[in-house]
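--- STAGE predict ---
source: upstream dedup step, 1 unique chain passed
mode: sequence only
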Amino acid sequence: MNFDRLFEPVALGDITLKNCIAMSPMNLGYTGPNGYHSDQNTAWYALRARGGFGLIITECVVMNPHRWGGQESLNPSLLIDERYYRFHSEMTEMLHHFNGCKVCIQLSPGWGRQGHPHAESRDCPAGAPSPVPLQVDLRHLNKGWEKQIKRLSPEMAELVPDFDVLRQMDDAAYASMVDTLMAFTAEKIPEMLHIIYGDTPRELTIPEIVDLEDRFAVQAQAAFKLGYDALEVHAPHGYLMHQFLSPRSNRRHDIYGGSLENRARFLTNTLMKTRERIGPDKPLGVRLSGDELMPGGITHDEVVRVVALCRKAGANFFNISQGSYENPGAAFAPDGEDEFTRWAPGFKEAAEGLPVITPNFIHPETALKALESGSTDIISLGRQAIADPFWPVKVKEGRIGDIVKCARCQRCYMDLMTANWARCSVNPLVGKEKYYPELFLDTPKLQKKIALFTKKAQDLPQI
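--- STAGE serialize ---
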């Protein structure tokens, strides 16, 4: 099979990607405890750049400096002031050594009700559009999550041997059992409890929302100065911006609540203020869930209208996802492949020709089909990029049989959620990339500079 279509260049704002293959944004928790990029962060991304990805989209980097940011439990990268800048510039400089690789920062205003109070200020709840706590419906756990919960707790496997029993329960049957499950979880795997039942957040004031809009634009401008080629606004999966969009979590009655235009105001204001600062052509995108897939949540029809509003506000590319934490089986880590392409037609129509990125691929044949059908403009790999950072170069070389395929086991997600160092069931290098610089420090550009420097050093006399 000919995969040349995957390697055609594609325009994104005022830049051109060398191919149509992106790495999806994923937070593996490799930053330091105060949100600074670590050597492992840089090595993790560098190995994927070495593997041939045309676009690396970073984990969501949080620009919210406030105690109520609510994002600390997942230990994200931060970009809140000049203390963080040099660590980001180090990473972008490294990734730009790799044969035209472009780097997109995914910038986030925070976690909202999916977050938790900071470890140093437990008295301060997370800020959100409304005081609506998170509550995961365990019937939405897919096979990968089931496998990891049973790995962490063999007792849970004894209590619920087959999670299909849960998945098939009606509301009344589930309600009668959920308290027992929660009591068991609190006793046996308490580190999971905060993921299932969130803290009640505090409703943000209008001045606080405007403050985030303004700060976002400032840090977006800084990101481009630090070497990022593109910026993606983080608005999917039930995080803070998504919470404003969703009637399930936004119960406000002011200019940021009620109608879809009001619920989208935080996002569209942020886009307009950012576009004003960075200029008319730089790549400025938005990641959105194609559908929340929860009762009372934002629907696909509404999301399509949000895409159109974002386009008018200054966005010039879009990245598709689906679901939220409350539906972890359907959200950003489903069991299957190519499940997000179903939302692409709506995105494409509302985007009016602007590029659309679609994730959730394992097999190059499936990715090729998505591109050739016109469903999407750029395909992206999430967990598959964890499993095999060399997927692009293996496809280009015709070494399809050498691809290490993601097992969809959710080990990476479970490690992150339970504060473990993220690893992978099929790739032993994950989390250890920094110990193997020989795998990514061999770019011709860097080698040439090092060879010239060392040659000059060797010519010096010893004293």
